[in-house]
Amino acid sequence: MLMDALVKTGPQPGLTLSKVEKPVPGEGEVLIRIHKTAICGTDLHIYNWDAWSQSHIKPPLTIGHEYVGEIAQIGGGVRHFHVGQTVSGEGHIVCGQCRNCRAGRGQWCRDTQGVGVSRSGAFAEYLCIPASNCIPIAPDLDEEVVSFFDAFGNATHTALMFDVIGEDVLITGAGPIGVMAAAICRHIGARNVVITDVKDYRLDLALKLGATRAVNVAREDLSALLPDLHMTEGFDVGLEMSGAESALQQMLGLMRNGGQIALLGLFGRKPSLDLDALIFKGLTVQGIYGRKMYETWYKMAAMVQSGLDLKPLITHRFHYTEYEDAFRIMNTGESGKIILEWS
Questions:
Q1: Which of 230, 241, 273, 308 could form a disulfide with 173 if both were Cys (CB 3.0 to 4.6 A apart)?
Q2: In this predicted model, what pLDDT tens digit does every residue of 16-73 receive, in sequence order?
Q3: Is 169 helix (H, G, I), strand (E, B) or coil?
């Protein structure tokens, strides 16, 4: 039986709406009928066929890893799930046997396979994943918001890495994940949440979701704004989301002694770090990859259920057959989360 899917058919820009074989769940697997998907920055890299994609993606491949749907079929040995149940899924398929997996740190599994990156993805009518990766979704959670829980998980893992209650937080990069991190920090009690970028559209979006101050560093001096925020020693916590060397260098210069930095952004080229700042300021730097498996998913649901409103982050909605328009808008940088409807 065939189904529709958005496929990277070859080593060139773009995607193709194709007919592919509908997957069949094997032992320990579930088949998910996709309701909604969201476009991630990784999907845009693959669509544009940039240097990262050329070294990581092997066409043909159905892409996409942010989704929500319902279980359509379960394979042998699957317990705790049933047909018709609303679910999403952890996008990292891990080995379960390495030291990190067995210690409950699956996000650092050395043999990770990524849904929509190294195995078939969710931009399709159906997706098959191990039941162990399946996340049950409570009925009071909005499906549009759940469709980008994967990205929300990156923001959550980063924002919760260090204690931000009552602290001054600097976020560099106002893409959707940076904007969500700002919303999280305000929701859980940060004093000031300052976010930087060079696109006014995304900075305005960050303000709508709770940022204290949104700074366009192309024309504003960030350090000159700190006295207005009653800051005397620098930022307590930094969340680097941009992957821009200039942003990281500015962050290092504005951290207080003993400050803490979580790094999520991926750099197009190796940054030249000011190691003196790390050493003499006594900074703690933590790299972030994916989500904690599976603690982050519980935190995400709880924050939304306790009033964290992410709906303003959704700026565009399209039917999956209109994917070209969706990616065109995504490429302008003037969008939040873009939802593709598959129902």
A1: 241
A2: 999 999 999 999 999 999 999 999 999 999 999 998 899 999 999 999 999 999 999 9
A3: strand
Query: Quick check: helix, strand or coil at residue 41?
Result: helix
State the catalytic residue, choosing from 35, 37, 45, 196. Answer: 45
Cβ-defined contacts of 140-146 (< 8 Å, 24+): 140/305, 141/301, 141/304, 141/305, 142/304, 142/311, 143/35, 143/36, 143/68, 143/86, 144/36, 144/311, 144/314, 144/317, 144/339, 145/304, 145/310, 145/311, 145/314, 146/68, 146/88
Q: What confidence category does residue 266 fall into, taking pLDDT thresholds of 50, 70 and 90? A: confident
Provide the pLDDT for residue 287. 96
Whether the Cβ atoms of residue 135 and residue 89 lie closer than 8 Å to each other: yes
Neighbour-count burial of 109, counting CB atoms closer than 10 A to its CB (0-12 exposed, 13-18 middle, 19+ buried): buried
Residue 191 structure tokens: 């004093």
pLDDT at 204: 98
Q: What phi, psi does 3 have (nearest 5°)?
A: -145, 165
Q: Tell me, what's the pLDDT at 273?
A: 82
- Listed in sequence order, the residues at least 6 apart from 120 whose beta carbon sits closer than 8 Å to its beta carbon are 23, 61, 62, 127, 128
Does the pLDDT of residue 237 top 90, yes or no? yes
Catalytic pick among 42, 62, 86, 172: 42
Q: Which residues contact 295 (CB under 8 A, 6 or more apart)?
A: none
Q: Which H or E run includes 120?
A: none
195 phi and psi angles, rounded to 5 deg: -120, 140
Q: CA-CA distance, 254 to 244, in Å (whole number)?
A: 16
What is the rounded distance in angstroms from the CA atom of residue 156 to the CA atom of residue 177?
9
Q: Which domains does the chain have, with CATH numbers?
A: 2-152+291-341 (3.90.180.10), 162-287 (3.40.50.720)
Q: Is 45 a catalytic residue?
A: yes
